[in-house]
Amino acid sequence: xxxxxxxxxxxxxxxxxxxxxxITNLAGKGTQYGVGGANAPTFVGAQPLQxxxxxxxxxxxxxxxxxxxNAGTLIGxxxxxxxxxxxxxxxxxxxxxxxxxxxNxxxxxxATTTGMGLAGKYLTSGxxxxxxxxxxNxxxxxxASTAGLDLAGKYLTSGxTQNTAAQxxxxxxTAGSKTAGLDAVxxxxxxxxxxxxxxxxNYMNPYVTxxxxxxxxxxxxxxxxxxxxxxxxxxxxxxxxGSQRGAxxxxxxxxxxxxxxxxxxxxxxxxxxxxxxxxxxxQRQAQLQAGQTxxxxxxxxxxxxxxxGQIAANAQNQQAVNALQAAQSAGNVTxxxxxxxxxxGQIAANAQNQQALNALQAAQSAGSLTNQYAxxxxxxGQAAGNLQNxxxxxxxxxxxxxxxxxxxxAQNLRDAATARLNLGQQTQNQGxxxxxxxxxxxxxxxxxxxxQQLFPLDVLAxxxxxxxGAQIPTTQTATMTGSPLSAIAGLGALTAxxxxxxxxxxxxxxxxxxxxxxxxxxxxxTDTTTGGSSGGSDTVVLTPEQRGLTYDPASxxxxxxxxxxxxxxxxxxx
Length: 574
What we know:
Elements: E1 8-14, H1 17-33, H2 48-60, H3 65-79, H4 83-96, H5 99-112, H6 115-128, H7 132-145, H8 148-161, H9 165-178, H10 181-192, H11 196-237, H12 244-464, E2 475-481, H13 484-498, H14 508-520, E3 527-530, E4 537-540, E5 550-552, E6 557-559, E7 565-566
Antiparallel strand pairs: 1-2, 3-4, 5-6, 6-7
């Protein structure tokens, strides 16, 4: 139990609310982003570029081996090139043949050929040929034994024994007198005189099927697809679906559509009947005209038959005249044939004499040509020898060129091997550079992502250092608690002394009244209280929250009740 005579004092130190909120916010964020927190950073592993670099490094191992193998093959080919062997065929060909060997056949042919040997057979032919009289005899004999009367006899007999013109004309005259035009036109005249009503139905039946029925079908399709759905939709939209009004509207619409279709069918029937009647009348007119035409054709046929009989008679007479003229022509031709045979005998004799002369001239030409051939053979032999010598020189030169080319080929193979080695090394170096570049970029990517994970902690660290070293104002509150007995004793003393006047003529009660009055006109923004362990007077600074201010983290400042930005003392920020 507390002593009734004992008094106590309690002192509490507080910081500003914004500082408390600041520390609380940092602690909450640190817990959230720290190890085990909801947004704790994680370790960023190898990135795709790094993985690609690792895989590429394994793939590039030995990538130079193909170039190295190829280079070894080229070096082997270079060392195996037979330079001397490349030249041997040309050197052998150039040293085994001579110009004389190539020329010998032509020289031998030129020495053994004479012009007399070839001319002999033409001379013999010219001397032993038949004489001109022997060649002419067959033609002369034929011309003397042939007479013109022998050939003309059969044509004269034919001209006298031919049928008369009357016999040739009889069939045509008989046919022309038997056929009448009326027989040909009977059927057309009978068809043309029948009534048009029988023909109209032939045109109307397909018209009714193809036109009138199609109007009916089109009307039914329009009612089913357009009119009925439209009227029903209108009834539904007007709330009349299933009602008598809706049924009446549908019946009226269908009736109007049927009336319209019936009117179109009536128009079509009228138009179709008029067109069918016109077509029937046109057909009847065409049949009458066809009958007239058939009569004209039949009459023309009779006239043609009579004309044909006259023409046949004229042709028979002309045939007899032609046969007599042919006989005369045959006699003339035969006589001309005899004259031609005699002329042919004379021409044959002249040709025989010319043949003998030509044979003698051919013998002379053959001798000259043979002698020229022998000279050409000797010249050819000389040219062949020269060409063989040139060929031999070319072969030797080709052997030298082949050796040089083989040497150059070996050098090219060695150069290619060196280039392949350099290419393999460059491929390996470039592969390593690519792998290093991928690894470097992957490490940078990894660092960026890791920094992204740690960014909230870095921000919190910087935010924690904002108020580092700053003087934070604190408020100390002293609370005095007196003993119950001292309070009662003091209350009596206070009551007695409150009205006791001091040397200045004022009592404590007067001073308290004056002080209370002064509170109403004191300076704003500064509050004083009396207390403390030393019993002196301390100045108490109000916190922003006590002043009714709200902290705004985005601007790192405070706002008053009006929403204006102010500092922690409530003064506007300039």
